[in-house]
Design a protein that fits this description.
The protein is α+β, with helices and mostly antiparallel strands. About 25% of the residues lie in helices and about 20% in strands. It contains five helices and six strands. The protein has helices spanning about 15-25, 50-55, 65-80, 110-115, 115-120, and strands at about 30-35, 45, 55-60, 90-95, 100-105, 130. Strands 1-2-3-6-5-4 form a six-stranded mixed β-sheet, sandwiched between helices. InterPro entries: DUF4262. This is DUF4262 domain-containing protein. It comes from Altericroceibacterium indicum.
Length: about 170
């Protein structure tokens, strides 16, 4: 698969070169998206997991910048060591005492959320998973009694809606 790493240097601007340098040095790059003008939650996503490790990219919403970066870095390190987190199952060890779930992201959401990854992979031919976190008592958005305070913090990026999840 061709990536932006194969582009001639003359086609790259300074931001492109910086982005690719991070992937070359660290194996991946985390992009933080925050727009105070929009009513949507902020998010962070990886680029490079699929290229370097054969694992889907990961996107996570509404966590502080450093927390989301550290979580992605920990997941990247685990995958590099052969510990592949299984999608659509409850995972321990990502959020301390709480579980997490990785759900497949529909390509319908790539253009809106995964700009740098789309540029890097030269299109949408790469997988991505949404890292979903629970509320304070460990309930996920699809479970009864999920804390409504967090209802708008994680948009559902798979096909369907939260009520279609059966994990």
């Amino acid at each position: 698969m061709k990536t932006a790493l194969d582009l001639p240097e003359i086609e790259l601007d300074a931001a492109d070169r910086d982005f690719l340098a991070q992937i070359r040095e660290h194996g991946w790059f985390g992009t933080r998206v925050f727009d105070p003008e929009k009513q949507e939650p902020d998010f962070t996503y990886s680029t490079g997991f699929f290229h370097g490790l054969g694992h889907p990219e990961i996107i996570v919403f509404s966590l502080p910048k450093q927390v989301s970066h550290d979580i992605l870095w920990d997941i990247y390190s685990d995958i590099r060591e052969g510990k592949f987190p299984k999608p659509e199952t409850r995972l321990s060890g990502i959020f301390g005492n709480h579980q997490a779930v990785l759900l497949p992201v529909s390509r319908d959401f790539y253009a809106e959320h995964l700009g740098w990854s789309r540029w890097f992979y030269r299109g949408d031919d790469f997988p991505c998973l949404q890292l979903v976190w629970p509320d304070r008592v460990g309930l996920f958005p699809w479970e009864p009694n999920f804390d409504p305070e967090f209802a708008n913090d994680q948009p559902y990026l798979a096909t369907g809606n939260w009520t279609s999840v059966t994990i």
